[in-house]
Design goal:
With 307 residues, the chain is α+β, with helices and mostly antiparallel strands. It has eight helices and 17 strands. Helix content is 29%, strand content 31%. Helix 6 packs antiparallel against helix 7.
Length: 307
């Protein structure tokens, strides 16, 4: 665990790379109010455009299969050591990186969208994780060229060699000035939990977003304050959830081939009404980093629409 009293022996057992990451994440450089955090929200975005196969099984879980192939590719590159090994440690935490007694959040999200004749994949790295953009991009290109499972379960792996790849940086996130109504249009299912069970509604969305944003702020070298005010205000708002519906699917473990993992989530649209001002920075940041659990698998992606 990463605590102020961590012993040198514990750090050495975990490895110098993990220990260095944990120390940096444990000691942010500065604190910032939630309202100011979007002005410091750095992202490095790697975008690949690929030809769309005729037999692609499209849908909201395509990002999960891209993420699996990318992770395997980055692991293979890491076997040669050097920068790729550091990237693998920082991005995928193979030995269980912890901060403040909890598993550190993985500092990226993957999006994949099938369009008329192309598939667009975007890998976003948050904060100082962008230093490993070169290695992450090389792994993504290799993963796509090597083949993505176009149907779940490894039944139909097809190469998607990129037609074009580009990288861009964003130093801030725009936040709407004001709004009395917000629509969260989920492009992938959102998985919220209550205790050990998946929540059957989106009432806990603000608290889940606050936890995720706080964890990712550490990758910006920042500690964020004022999240409790936003979460408290969220409890006073009106939620229209009639356009949300439950979905279930099966994924397969990379580390334990053949093992089936049952997944559940909520899909559709969530409408929020009321005084949204304290919540808007959180909702705007969540649009970039997704909401709920399993965001590293592409879940919880949404588009924010405000009125």
């Amino acid at each position: 665990m990463s605590t102020a009293g961590e012993t040198a022996a514990t750090a050495d057992a975990r490895g110098p790379a993990e220990a260095g990451l944990a120390a940096r994440l444990h000691r942010p450089v500065a604190a910032v109010e939630l309202a100011g955090l979007p002005r410091h929200w750095r992202r490095t975005m790697i975008r690949a455009v690929c030809h769309r196969p005729a037999d692609l099984e499209e849908g909201p879980l395509l990002a999960e299969r891209v993420r699996g192939a990318w992770g395997r590719s980055l692991m293979a590159l890491a076997a040669d050591g050097g920068p790729a090994d550091a990237a693998f440690t920082a991005l995928l935490h193979p030995r269980g990186l912890q901060v403040d007694g909890r598993d550190a959040v993985k500092p990226y999200v993957v999006r994949a969208e099938a369009r008329a004749d192309v598939v667009v994949v975007q890998l976003s790295l948050f904060g100082f994780a962008g230093r490993w953009a070169r290695e992450a991009a090389a792994a993504l290109e290799q993963a796509l060229a090597g083949g993505i499972d176009l149907r779940q379960g490894g039944r139909h792996v097809v190469p998607l060699p990129p037609l074009a790849m580009e990288a861009a940086r964003s130093e801030a996130v725009a936040v709407p000035d004001r709004a009395d109504l917000a629509v969260l249009d989920f492009g992938t299912p959102v998985h919220l939990h209550r205790g050990r069970r998946m929540a059957g509604s989106a009432d806990g969305l603000a608290a889940a977003l606050a936890r995720r944003v706080a964890a990712l702020a550490r990758w910006q070298d920042l500690d964020v304050t004022g999240l409790d005010v936003a979460v408290a205000q969220a409890g006073r708002l009106t939620y229209r959830q009639d356009a949300l519906y439950p979905v279930a699917w099966t994924r397969y473990s990379v580390r334990q081939p053949g093992r089936r993992i049952e997944m559940r989530g909520l899909a559709g649209r969530l409408v929020i009404e009321g005084n949204l001002a304290p919540l808007l920075p959180l909702l705007a940041l969540g649009e970039t980093c997704h909401a709920g659990l399993h965001c590293a698998l592409g879940l919880g992606q949404y588009r924010l629409i405000t009125v």
